[in-house]
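As promised in the previous annual report, we have extended the structural survey to additional targets. Below is the entry for DUF6802 domain-containing protein.
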Amino acid sequence: MNDWWLSLHGLEDLAAAGEGDRLRLPLGDEHLELDGAAGDSVTLADPGGTTVYADLDGDGVVDHISSVHHDGGYDIFTADPHRAAWGLVAGEPGKPPPGGGSEWGLVPNATPEKGLEGQGGDSGKPGWHRIERG
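The corresponding structure token record, generated without further manual editing, is:
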């Protein structure tokens, strides 16, 4: 498991996904099964915090994860590259986003099509993207 997955809550007792109609959670090479159906959201908790796993587009696969930690911090991830491209600028809490700008939305002169100079990554590639952290 990659390091960022360690910040998610309630995954310890989940089974590998089968062929059924349950909600699937892809995490790299692992595919876990949650107690939900297409279009549902499932909330899981453990001593470290609470995480909501949501299927926003109704295809039966989790595509949005919101996690609140016991220390009050939070992380939000999306598997939708378009949503990630238009989302909040990823960065460290308390530090200004790269290239200046406000803490909401894209920095000036940046769009998903143009990108952000010096960004170093393509938010259009598949996989999980952090869109907010606090």
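The first helix runs from residue 81 to 86. The CA atoms of residues 1 and 34 lie 17 Å apart. These points will be discussed at the next consortium meeting with the crystallography subgroup.
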